[in-house]
Amino acid sequence: MSAPLLEGRGLRLSYSGRTVLAEAGVTLGHGELVGLIGPNGAGKTTLLKCLAGLLRADAGTVTLDGAALDRVPPRLLARRLAYLAQSTAVHWPLTVERVVALGRLPHLDPWRAPGAADATAIERALAQCGVAHLRERVVTTLSGGERARVLLARALAVEPDLLLADEPVAGLDPYHQLQVMEVLRQGSTQGMGTLVVLHDLTLAARYCDRVVLLSRGGVAADGPPAEVLRPALLEAVYGVRMLTLEAGGAVAYVPWERLGRDPES
Ligand SMILES: Nc1ncnc2c1ncn2[C@@H]1O[C@H](COP(=O)(O)OP(=O)(O)OP(=O)(O)O)[C@@H](O)[C@H]1O
C-alpha cells in the first residue's frame, strides 16, 4: 500500500510543561479534503504548524509521501506544500496581483522570468477566490474578508499537492464561505490534499470527506462527518448542545446551549 500524502504520528508538544499536543496524529491522502475541528485552544494551529514543518514537535514524526518532512529539500517542500496561516495580517503595501504572484516564487529560479504557466496559475487563483477585480488594489487597503481571499489565492497559486489552511473562512460572509469551500472541494477533485481548520461544523459536514476532532491536544475522533459529528461527542468536546437540522440529506449544526464550563479550560 502506498504511503499517505502527509502523515503525522504520535506528535507531542508542550510549552512550559503544559501539554498542547498529546500523541496527536493525522493522515491526509491525495485528493482528500479533511476538516480539522475542535474547541479554541485544542491544538489545531499547533498541529497544522507541525505538519507544515514550521514547528518541531517534542516527539513524533511527520512524513510526506513516506519520507521524513525535515529531509525534504526546502524548495521542493515550498512547491508541494502551501500553508495558509490563521492571521491575515499583511505588512507590505503590495498590489493584490503581486501578493498572489508570490505564490509562484518556489517555481522560479534567478535566471528565469515568470512564464505562461506562472501567469495562468496566478489568473486562475485570482478568479477562483473572486479577487481578480481587486488586482490593482494595494493589499493593506483591503477589508479583512477581501484580504483573507487574496491570501488563499496566493496559496493556490503555488499549485501545491497539499494545502494546510487555518480557518480560511473566518471573517467571510456566507457567499464567500461557500465560495472558498467550493474552491477547496474543486482542488480535491484535481488531486490536492487539503487539511482545513474549521469552526463551522455545517461546512465541515457538507464539504469534507473526513473530519478530525481535536480535544485537549489529542484526536477524539477521526472519520466520515456523520460518524464524528455525533451529538454526544460534540457535547462532551465542545460543552455545547447543538441543534441539528436535516434538510435534503444534509445536516446543519447550530450551537444552541452551553452545558457548563469551557471544556478546554
Ligand atoms: N508559543 C506558545 N507558547 C505557549 N503556549 C502556546 C503557544 N502557542 C500556543 N500555545 C497554547 O497552546 C494551546 C493550543 O493553541 P492552538 O493555537 O494550537 O489552538 P487552536 O486549537 O488552534 O485554537 P483556536 O481555535 O483558538 O485557534 C493553547 O492553549 C495556546 O494558548
Write structural notes for this entry.
The chain has 9 helices and 12 strands. The protein is of the alpha/beta class. It has a single domain (6-258), classed as P-loop containing nucleotide triphosphate hydrolases (Rossmann fold, 3-Layer(aba) Sandwich). The protein has a 6-stranded mixed sheet with strand order 6-7-8-3-9-10, with helices on both faces. A 4-stranded antiparallel sheet has the order 2-1-4-5, covered by helices on one side. The chain has a two-stranded antiparallel ribbon with strand order 11-12. The longest helix has 16 residues, at 174-189. It starts with 5 loop residues before the first strand and ends in a 7-residue tail after the last strand. The mean pLDDT is 94. GO terms for molecular function: ATP binding; ATP hydrolysis activity. Part of the ABC transporter complex HmuTUV involved in hemin import. Responsible for energy coupling to the transport system. Keywords: ATP-binding, Nucleotide-binding, Translocase, Transport.
